[in-house]
Amino acid sequence: MITFQQKILNVIKCFRRQWHLFSNSERTTVCGADCMIMALQLSMAEVNKQHHGDFTVSLSDLLETWKYLLYDKLGLSYENMTEPENYADMKKAYHAFLARSSMLDLIDIYQKCYGLGLVSEDESIAPVQLLEFISGIVYVQENNGSVLFTPSTPVNRHGRENVKVTILAKKCVCSYLSLLVNSKDDLALAHIVNVPDRGLDREAFTNLKHASQETKMSIFLMATSFIRTVELGGRGCASSLFDPLRAHVKGLSNFINFIDKLQEILGEILNPRIAGGQILSTVKMHLIKGRSSGDPFCQAVEEVVQDLDLKIKNIIDSQHEALTASTTGLSPAR
């Protein structure tokens, strides 16, 4: 019997194998529940700015729109739910954001897999099951074989704090890797642009986002363009578009130069196993610099990096034969 978790993993594996059927972009990122919410929040902020002149998004409005969006995208009945104000604009802005960021959310991947007939009947997932999964419900297999839905909640304060720190560490490390793979991943950039602290607050991110929209570039490419222009001292420095960014030159330069460092490792070290380990080690040292060894965040980063390093090794080992036979010169593992 295939467990629900295995079914979800099979859908993701199907996407990874057949990604060219899902997207025209060479680098496409899977958008999970947390990224979906963040993308929706940013999209709602833009719509609110257009209609009300204010970027503010209340938590209650976000959760209400999030629930409505899930039911809508999954084709589930939402007759008893009130459609959020300006929902059509928010939904359009949400999908436009994902498209600009070369991202597909889990629902899009699920529907595309089944639409193309890439998933067998044994691996089928009911829309309501996917709804429960994205909403944070965990399937627990009982001894008698029955399956229960239980909320995933830690049992005590200490446990909750450990979980939060681990989640933060994993999100930071994975966001650096995601941005390295997909430079259009604005959500990954949002997670790490000020981690560690570079003095890049919400105002800096907002200014970057507006400049990227004006130039129709990703936020990362916009930041890179700005820093390169400043470094070269060219005529482009006089552009009024760059004016709001001048106060953030130091922090943005620190960020862009660090990503350059990671890209150099990837370009110079041909062995993907060694390159992956070196990148993870560099990210780890960057995140824990200046912190004490007993800091819970340092310990969490260490554990996350060890886990990812092992996963990279397993991926490369499992694809060794395919890599040996490949004539492209570029390994899927990289």
UniProtKB/TrEMBL annotation:
| Subcellular location per the Swiss-Prot or TrEMBL entry | Cytoplasm; Nucleus
Keyword check for DNA repair, yes or no.
yes
Q: Which UniProt keywords apply?
A: Cytoplasm, DNA damage, DNA repair, DNA-binding, Nucleus
Q: Name one GO molecular function term.
A: DNA binding
InterPro entries with a match to the protein in the record: P-loop_NTPase, PARPBP
A GO cellular component entry from the record: chromatin
Gene Ontology terms describing biological process? DNA repair; negative regulation of double-strand break repair via homologous recombination
Instruction: Tell me its family.
Output: Belongs to the PARI family.
Q: Which PANTHER family match?
A: PCNA-INTERACTING PARTNER
Name it. PCNA-interacting partner
Native organism is Probosciger aterrimus
